[in-house]
């Protein structure tokens, strides 16, 4: 997709009022079946969610498109009402968000992998033996010390984890038309950042020089003796959430990646809680001053990634128990959903449709308990794209004008 | 639609693994109601399909778009994961596929109709009285004998059926910017292939000359004294199925049209069985050497086209009985569906949504028996586009990488 015609249409209809919308993301909450015993949501005891479902609308959402598993970036952009294949930010920026590196508009970011090359300069290990975080930090310190950046350009090098690092160039007039250097296979030399269509980029020439310096600096290292760079990207200049939806947004999120995607669309970060109880309490507080609150709960995803079904069930039950404090703030519309599913059986994000609960005025009655993947299938929301949820919530909150006369 | 952004996105995420996907097409299997007695699937006794449904995902697919009835070409291209309004091949090529004429990249094909013109050259019958196949062959033989093609161009003329024939020009540098000559109404002369935007086409001039020759050759014929040509097209240069999905595909199809659409996307034809039992046996064999097998069963469509509901029910039951031999090969993902519905009450293809059954890992439990149009409506797949089925199957087979970080 090359433009976001749906989002542009809805944005053109947006009007301001004082109704308050809360988007509670139980990250990765959806699941597939577990050995015939059902999903985590089906197995969890969730009296508050079920009571809420009784008078709410239910449905399923498609994060990006059928069969497509989203990363956290695209998953949240969809939830924020941005077509994720159009508002597709480079990996460099997502890496920066993930470690809470504060990017500016003068920055170009890239994801780095340490790798191993042989005497001929051919890559023999694209991950440098998966070196430790400590080794990563040691080597970056050496590079920082010896590197000579060109005049007017600051270079930042930050550890992400293991063999992964972040490169940020800061300066005036930098561009991100820079070739990825990862040859994507061993036995080949790293690619040139200035090749083909990138030959015209002054920044690509800077990167070429820096990589040559790094290679010389690391020549005697036994494992991490070279770097591969990909996903060069500038901090995107997108319409902010406030402009797009005429909402006054606040983010309540305890983990860097989610604060990062919130900042990508210009949301103010008002609190950084991590527990279900604190998240609901902070979201309730934020609703006093904002017409939109994004609240993020990480542990339903983390337990899924860990393949720990009992822990995922426990985390769902924690959020269920915390819900009354959020409900007490009485948001006009409350969306409870996720950016994607994280089935413990897959230990990873998945492509499955995501359960959605929407408490709102003007419903066709309540869809009834329980709140789970199978029951959501027959709910009044139907199966829609994640990017359609904010517009739907805005409609129920009286925040969208009629289209046409 | 002008480009296939969904297909391109999913293709960019495709990775290879050894999981095997089987697509069993029961051509035209879907139906609408028959005199209050239900669809053919509802009336058929299908114990194996029903047992499979109990542990599979069900849903409905839209072949092209709501209300649009597909021909066999677009119907199958959708199933192969190609947006059929973008990957839209000319009628000339489909006619060639239908009679298994082996097109090369140097060929331009067109569909011919014999017609009748009067002394003024006006068309009086666009189908030449629906002449017989034998008459068609007799006349083509005369044309072949007397026609003088230009140097460097071979001309092929082949009987399709009744008044329909295939024209193929073979040579270097031929183009398909050639005007259709059918005036679409009687009382008018045939149109010129070189008119308007087609004036610049050297191949249109060749066609103009050939048609003039044919007119002279057939001048004394009482019925078929002229030809009308449409759907000029070259064999398309599309991404192959193997490139697009990183699958190693095999086709098991007994009828020329379906082998033809399989060849359009570069599939290898490994067997040409026509009975349900042979199709399932050959598909099972092919799964030993291929990561994707397309198996095509024609008779559920043919009996629909014949308006023969009892025969359609029998054919469904034949495939049901044959299924265990395919299941014994244990494909990792098995899709059972159709390219479109062919209701016996319509005696034709239709626009109705098509039942889908998918046996796969990572489901939300089984959707339960029976496998029919009404029960499929509430299945976990929902109602999706046919082009989304291969991506969904690939997701369940672990063949798609995450989108974004």
UniProtKB/TrEMBL annotation, chains A, B:
Pathway: Carbohydrate degradation. It catalyses: (2R)-2-phosphoglycerate = (2R)-3-phosphoglycerate. Residues 19-393 form the Metalloenzyme domain. The keyword Signal does not apply. InterPro entries: Alkaline_phosphatase_core_sf (IPR017850), Metalloenzyme (IPR006124), Pglycerate_mutase_ApgM (IPR004456), Pglycerate_mutase_ApgM_sf (IPR042253). GO terms for molecular function: metal ion binding; phosphoglycerate mutase activity. Keywords: Glycolysis. GO terms for biological process: glycolytic process. Belongs to the BPG-independent phosphoglycerate mutase family. A-PGAM subfamily. NCBIfam families: apgM, PRK04135.1. This is Metalloenzyme domain-containing protein. It comes from marine sediment metagenome. The lineage of its organism: unclassified sequences, metagenomes, ecological metagenomes.
């Amino acid at each position: 997709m090359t433009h976001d015609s749906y989002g542009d249409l809805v944005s053109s209809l947006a009007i301001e009022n004082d109704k308050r919308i809360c988007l509670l993301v139980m990250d990765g909450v959806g699941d597939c079946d577990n050995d015939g015993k059902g999903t985590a949501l089906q197995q969890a005891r969730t009296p508050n969610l079920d009571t809420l479902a009784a008078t709410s609308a239910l449905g399923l959402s498609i994060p990006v498109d059928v069969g497509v598993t989203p990363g956290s970036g695209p998953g949240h952009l969809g939830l924020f009402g941005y077509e994720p294949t159009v508002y597709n930010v480079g990996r460099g920026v997502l890496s920066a968000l993930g470690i809470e590196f504060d990017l500016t508009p003068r920055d170009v970011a890239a994801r780095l992998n340490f790798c191993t090359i042989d005497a001929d300069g051919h890559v023999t290990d694209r991950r440098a033996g998966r070196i430790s975080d400590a080794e990563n930090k040691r080597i970056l310190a050496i590079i920082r010390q010896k590197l000579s950046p060109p005049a007017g350009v600051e270079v930042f090098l930050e550890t992400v984890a293991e063999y992964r690092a972040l490169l940020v160039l800061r300066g005036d007039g930098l561009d991100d038309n820079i070739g990825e250097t990862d040859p994507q296979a061993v036995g080949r030399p790293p690619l040139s950042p200035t090749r083909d269509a990138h030959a015209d980029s002054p920044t690509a020439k800077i990167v070429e020089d820096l990589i040559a310096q790094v290679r010389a600096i690391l020549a005697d290292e036994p494992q991490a003796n070279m770097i591969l760079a990909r996903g060069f990207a500038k901090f995107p200049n997108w319409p902010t959430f406030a402009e797009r939806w005429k909402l006054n947004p606040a983010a309540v999120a305890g983990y860097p990646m989610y604060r990062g995607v919130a900042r990508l669309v210009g949301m103010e970060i008002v609190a950084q809680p991590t527990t279900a109880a604190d998240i609901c309490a902070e979201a309730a507080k934020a609703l006093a001053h904002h017409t939109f609150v994004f609240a993020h709960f990480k542990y339903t995803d983390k337990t899924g990634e860990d393949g720990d079904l009992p822990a995922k069930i426990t985390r769902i039950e924690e959020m269920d128990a915390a819900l009354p404090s959020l409900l007490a703030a009485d948001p006009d519309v409350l969306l409870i959903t996720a950016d994607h599913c994280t089935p413990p059986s897959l230990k990873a994000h998945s492509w499955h449709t995501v359960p959605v609960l929407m408490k709102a005025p003007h419903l066709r009655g309540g869809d009834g308990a329980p709140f789970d993947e199978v029951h959501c299938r027959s709910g009044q929301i139907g199966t829609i794209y994640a990017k359609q949820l904010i517009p739907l919530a805005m409609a129920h909150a009286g925040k969208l004008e009629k289209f046409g006369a």
